[in-house]
Predict the 3D structure of the following.
Amino acid sequence: MSEITGAILGRASEPRLQAPAPGNDVLNEAFACAARAPDHALLRPWRYLVIEGDGLDALADVLARAADDSAMPSEAKLRSMPRRAPMIIAAITRHQSHPKVPAVEETLSTGCGVAYLLLALQAHGFAGMWRTGPANYHPVVHEGLGLADNESLAGLIYVGTPIQRKPAVPRPESNEFVQRWPAQGI
């Protein structure tokens, strides 16, 4: 098995994170990996916000402002969410009008970039948890994070050192979700 394949097969979302978070050298390498995501027409449809330290308190304030919406968790829960990790990376998709690139491809490119980012962080002993939820789509949160009208929040990536690795989640065998087309014998 190759080193890359082993890293992919060993990847897991880790919800229990603590300091330290990655430093600038590791982050720069991880973002360089994220920038290798498939990108039709080289639109670079992604950007990232690194949030740590006092920024986590500022994010808590932004999330709390969305608590008036009945679809949102309580203000107390929203305020506590940013303290689940020492660093949060907001992954943002920048939707651009292009005749050959539908918006879904920009979203998928961002998703690939986040996957590469998580693998690169894992290679340095860090872990992450990609989180979404009602706050991810709330206009107050978008405004608070400074998203433009053509941007969407792909998720908040909680990053840090795993407190304890969770047990491996059983994964399906490829024959459970892969078929040959057209079917053999036709």
Summary: The first strand starts at residue 17 and ends at 18. The mean pLDDT is 95.
